[in-house]
């Protein structure tokens, strides 16, 4: 009898229905960012809106918590905030790992993959990473492949005519494809990483591709280029007007160019001496935007919250890496330069608990805010005193905390994570504890709109003109919030803090 009891108890975790598993409660587990239930994730892939669902595919290792066996994981959401995990979408096979790429809705069946009336093919265009001789993993090739789904992304078939684009090159990857209405063609942006070139191709059927033009080298060429995206972004204050933005990643950071695209060439209008970054923190990479959004919806950007320098050793288990909050995009002109404005999607406001608010507080030294939490949204407006160094500390416990500071003399916003967490798990992480961006005040004011979600902070400065994303690994119970003004005299006009509900119940 006793042994039967022990046997039954031993089987319990296996027998429990999936929804009873106490998941998403582990140390450092983000509560309102997307993370896979378990195992390694990197780039967002195939972002596409279709029949009321936002699809998120992502670079995923189905068998481990470090990079490898790359395949496309899959989740869907109706609001970009609550996600439902779906089975692995496109697995690696004997010959190919499935690297980054994009997804399109082939409404007019240009690809010819439709089999029955009423089906709308979804087509994934991705890089097949091929290692012909497994004993020489560095002798690889990268070809572009496609796969199609006739059941709204639930199951996928790899096209038997692959590759659809092959330059017989080692490094040639990350195709982003979209429909270009004026030329009635599919356009692909894809990188030659070492050459620092984004190439453009066009196709009428997604199966055969013609080279159109090249862009680059330009801007930041200090590291290999990856994950390009070309899209139209609405202009603030000019209803109906848009400009083209070309985004790409450079191994550990990202940049973008603003200009025009005529269906063949991208004409850059960002001055040659200006480098624009969608994010100035160390933990935002490989970001791309959604295809096929409803016409009245602004573009939505999603990026991988991690860094190749130390990503494989961040102290999280049984998963590694998150996707950023989805950010809506607009362009604003400052002087003669168009810059991106990024705003977290409005649906996040549905997660807010009761607000705690301060109004008109003068700060001198440190001032503890009357709310706490490691899962919060904070929206504050400060009037920094002349030459002050001021800001807010999060995840505070004793002398520990993440500093989000403003150096008024230097007009610089900085994040210092040196006292926020365990930094010894990786030397590269320990060497990247400070990040900064130039932020001029607007009418003497600094607006800090930020989200702390256990091990991620995303800071949207001055209405999203500048954004910084940073990972931290604070001890449990480090949940204080503290404003500071080193010289004294900085004023907080308003500061609101909301506890945020978890989306992983
Ligand atoms: C970017 C990247 C891509 C590649 C993928 C492989 O983070 O290196 O260039 O397709 O990750 O996982």
The CATH topology of the largest domain corresponds to Tachylectin-2, Chain A
How much helical structure, as a percent, in the residues? Answer: under 10%
Ends distance: 36 Å
Number of strands: 32
* Domain module count: 2
CATH homologous superfamily label of the largest domain: Glycosyl hydrolase domain, family 43
- Uncertain stretches of 5 or more adjacent residues: 1-20
Number of helix segments?
Answer: 2
- What's the architecture of the largest domain in CATH terms? 5 Propeller
User: Helix/strand/pairing class, anyone?
Assistant: mainly beta
Radius of gyration: 23 Å
**Which word captures the global form?**
globular
What can you see in these coordinates?
The protein has 505 residues and is mainly beta. The protein folds into two domains: 39-346, Tachylectin-2, Chain A; 352-499, Exo-inulinase, domain 1 (Jelly Rolls, Sandwich), CATH 2.60.120.560. 4% of the residues lie in helices and 48% in strands. The protein contains two helices and 32 strands. The strands form six sheets. Strands 23, 24, 25, 26, 27, 28, 29, 30, 31 and 32 form a ten-stranded antiparallel beta sheet that branches. The longest helix has 14 residues, at 2-15. It is globular and about 70 Å long. The protein starts with a helix and ends in a 6-residue tail after the last strand. The protein binds beta-D-fructofuranose (FRU). Beta-D-fructofuranose binds at residues 42-43, 59, 70, 99-100, 127, 173-174, 226-227, 286. Residues 42-43, 59, 70, 99-100, 127, 173-174, 226-227, 286 line the site of beta-D-fructofuranose.
